[in-house]
Amino acid sequence: MVIVDCHAHLSDELFHDVLSDMILDFQKEDIFVISVGMNYKDFEEVVKIATENKGSVGFGLGLHPIQCGKIDKRPLSVDDTTKLPDLLDKFSSSAICLGECGLDFSKWLCPTSTERDMQRSALKVQIELSKKHNLPLNLHSRSAGKPLLDILRQNHVEGALLHAFDGGKKAIKQGVEDGHYFSIAPSIVRDPSQKQVATSVPLDRLVLESDSPALGPVKGQTNTPLNLLQTVDCLADLLNCSKEHVIEVTTENALRLFPKLRDHIKL
Ligand SMILES: [Zn+2]
Description:
Layout: E1 3-8, H1 19-28, E2 31-36, H2 40-52, E3 57-61, E4 66-68, E5 73-75, H3 84-91, E6 97-104, H4 113-132, E7 137-142, H5 145-154, E8 161-163, H6 169-177, E9 181-184, H7 192-200, E10 206-208, H8 228-239, H9 243-257
Parallel strand pairs: 1-2, 2-3, 3-6, 6-7, 7-8, 8-9, 9-10
Antiparallel strand pairs: 4-5
The structure holds zinc ion.
Zinc ion binds near residues 100 and 140.
């Protein structure tokens, strides 16, 4: 059965020279990848890679809560979202989800409440666009688990993907209550917080992600979608079930979360 990587960055510069080999490698293992954009600069490449690799790669477009400014990283603002509606009008019919977007309240990136409110406002714009285009959200949250879940609840969002969720037990519970899904990365082999998510969330809300090139099984090493096989091994151990069961359930969940996946993968 197909294994679905619900969140990866195949457009990352690190993959530029090795992309075609990398895609062949994960195709062999029957892995389908949803590659998500984070800023206007990578959108073209994200769409191109998916278009050229139909049946193995799909895409999502969104604006990451932290953008690279001229010199430094800076929080996303509503002004940044002005070009997004036109882009989604053009690409939403072929996109699988809207994202990567979300909230990142890391202290060194977003120290003031004004900046945190800027991010919230920019996310609200993307929530509205996701409703307009009927595209589920593919969400980033760092040090912002509860604020993210609150904003989703206030805006009546159900069934979004919380990728690499780092919130505590209470926040995980709220996410489950509100119908959201949690993706587990290959970093689970070394990261107790990912293990906590995997064992706290009902099995019908777990999906897989690589977040390539980040969140690999070995810290500091470039991650690829192929490492989903290690996530599957680890989850089978942790949840005391077979690898086949992990694959079957996470793929079924991904199809429920992202209905347009059905247009891309053979079942
Ligand atoms: Zn990501």
